[in-house]
């Protein structure tokens, strides 16, 4: 029994560390916007291209559901980035999410 709780605690600690690292990476990724004028920063954020996993997360869907949605035309049209890689502009996703909420 003690071994099982140690394994669970280790798994929880790893999950927390992974979440913390991901949050720190997001902050670091956006730090380049700090020195820019507000309008330029806003434009850069709106034009940022996100992959399917990020797009699904932002819009509040699972990745599998997001893929079903864009295959059936219920999600915004993706940008073809190469081979099989698709992307969505953040601004387009924000508009889509606002439209879904209304």
Provide structural commentary.
The chain has 102 residues and is mostly helical. It has two domains: 1-34; 47-102, Multidrug-efflux Transporter Regulator, Chain: A, Domain 2 (Orthogonal Bundle), CATH 1.10.1660.10. The protein has helices spanning 2-30, 38-47, 52-59, 63-71, 90-101, and strands at residues 49-50, 79-82, 85-89. Helix 3 packs across helix 4. 67% of the residues lie in helices and 11% in strands. The protein is built from five helices and three strands, in the order ααβααββα. A three-stranded antiparallel sheet has the order 1-3-2. The mean pLDDT is 80.
Helix content bin: 55-70%
Shape: extended
CATH class of the largest domain: Mainly Alpha
Q: Look up the CATH topology of the largest domain.
A: Multidrug-efflux Transporter Regulator, Chain: A, Domain 2
**Share of β-strand residues:** 5-15%
Summarize model confidence as the mean pLDDT: 80
Q: pLDDT below 50 for ≥5 consecutive residues: which ranges?
A: none
Give me the count of strands: 3
CATH architectural group of the largest domain: Orthogonal Bundle
Report the end-to-end length measured between terminal Cα atoms: 50 Å
- Give the helix tally: 5
Q: How many individual domains?
A: 2
Structural class: mainly alpha
- As laid out across the biggest beta sheet, the strand order is 1-3-2
Radius of gyration computed on alpha carbons? 18 Å
Q: Let me know the largest β-sheet.
A: 3 strands, antiparallel
- Write the H/E string, N to C: HHEHHEEH
